[in-house]
Amino acid sequence: MMTSRGEISRGGDWLAMRAPAKVNLTLHVLGRRDDGYHALESLVVFAGTGDDLTFSPGDRLDLAVSGPRAGGIGHGADNLVLKAAEALAALVPGLALGRFHLIKRLPVASGIGGGSADAAAALRLLAAHNGIARDDARLVAAARATGADVPVCLASKARMMRGAGEDLGPVLALPPLFAVLVNPGVAVETATVFRGLGLKPGDGWGGEPHPDLAAAACGVAQARASLQAALAGGRNDLERPAQAIAPVIDEALALLRGAESCWLARMSGSGATVFGLFDDGRGAAAARQTIAARCPDWWVKATVLR
Ligand SMILES: C[C@@](CO)(OP(=O)(O)O)[C@H](O)COP(=O)(O)OP(=O)(O)OC[C@H]1O[C@@H](n2ccc(N)nc2=O)[C@H](O)[C@@H]1O
Ligand SMILES: Nc1ncnc2c1ncn2[C@@H]1O[C@H](COP(=O)(O)OP(=O)(O)O)[C@@H](O)[C@H]1O
């Protein structure tokens, strides 16, 4: 089965799509809201690498999971694929149901939103099967009800994400970014990392303002240079609490920073996956090879972020 980014492929009685990994190129925490969630400002992009989800019609919701990471997640009602599907079924009376097959490849609880991507893909496949538009308010509501990162994964396009994840900026035409993703094999729970910031509901959180990445990304001739400068001026505020839980994150960042032609290395989301950005695909491929040889138990992928 071949699926490309964001596109649904169709067979005799099935629909399938890639659920791409999400990368937070920046993640600024603005404070903690009264509802307990943290207010964020984040430039989100998507990788070529991801999970794959297939749907075939049936009389009830069902899920099978296979793939190298299938052992790391529940295969029942606790799986975000079924949670998202149930959330949509609750909002759309008479929704036509069916069976999902998830091929799980992305590391779990790793800051690249694999579960959120799977949930969003499930919503897209159910929507396609039921003739529901991609921007239907019920799809967005089901995404929000499933998780903070699910709405941005519905379109899987580069954009600013604000609020707790519900406020999405316009799609940005970024130049393709050659990247290496490195997960050092430690699962890190998102809630624990946020808690490590030590903010109480209603607390603000200072720091430099977020750079205007939309303007930087939209410059035409000098897009790459202005984007590089703007990204260098950003940060991930969750790096510090995540490193306190998993010090190996530092090691992964150091390996990327030591690679030739790596111009930025940072953690994604709540970790522990880190990414390095490279001048070209050759530099990324060389770094991937070096890091994978040195740390054979780590998940190391060269990919293009868009
Ligand atoms: C940090 C981010 C950045 O993109 O990514 P990941 O590290 O998960 O990939 C997201 O905000 C994660 O989104 P998601 O993983 O969907 O979070 P949820 O399941 O909704 O929330 C898990 C827990 O994280 C905390 N949480 C989440 C989002 C947010 N803006 N503020 C929070 O405080 C809450 O304690 C919540 O109970
Ligand atoms: N399909 C799924 N893929 C990954 N994790 C899932 C899935 N369904 C449920 N989960 C649970 O959701 C949590 C977050 O998973 P994940 O999306 O991989 O985290 P992150 O956004 O940090 O990369 C994990 O605790 C995991 O057990």
From TrEMBL:
Q: Which residues form the GHMP kinase C-terminal domain?
A: 233-295
For this protein, what is the EC number? 2.7.1.148
GO terms for biological process?
Answer: isopentenyl diphosphate biosynthetic process, methylerythritol 4-phosphate pathway; terpenoid biosynthetic process
Report domain GHMP kinase N-terminal positions. Answer: 79-155
The protein's annotated catalytic reaction(s) are: 4-CDP-2-C-methyl-D-erythritol + ATP = 4-CDP-2-C-methyl-D-erythritol 2-phosphate + ADP + H(+)
Metabolic or biological pathway: Isoprenoid biosynthesis; isopentenyl diphosphate biosynthesis via DXP pathway; isopentenyl diphosphate from 1-deoxy-D-xylulose 5-phosphate: step 3/6
Question: Keywords in UniProt for this one?
Answer: ATP-binding, Isoprene biosynthesis, Kinase, Nucleotide-binding, Transferase
Record carries keyword ATP-binding = yes
| Family matches, as Gene3D superfamilies | 3.30.230.10, GHMP kinase, C-terminal domain (3.30.70.890)
Residues reported in the UniProt entry to bind ATP? 107-117
GO molecular function terms attached to this record: 4-(cytidine 5'-diphospho)-2-C-methyl-D-erythritol kinase activity; ATP binding
Catalytic site residues? 22, 149
Lyase: present as a keyword of the record?
Answer: no
Sequence similarity? Belongs to the GHMP kinase family. IspE subfamily.
Function noted in UniProt? Catalyzes the phosphorylation of the position 2 hydroxy group of 4-diphosphocytidyl-2C-methyl-D-erythritol.
Full protein name? 4-diphosphocytidyl-2-C-methyl-D-erythritol kinase
- Biological classification of the source: Bacteria, Pseudomonadati, Pseudomonadota, Alphaproteobacteria, Hyphomicrobiales
Gene giving rise to this polypeptide:
ispE
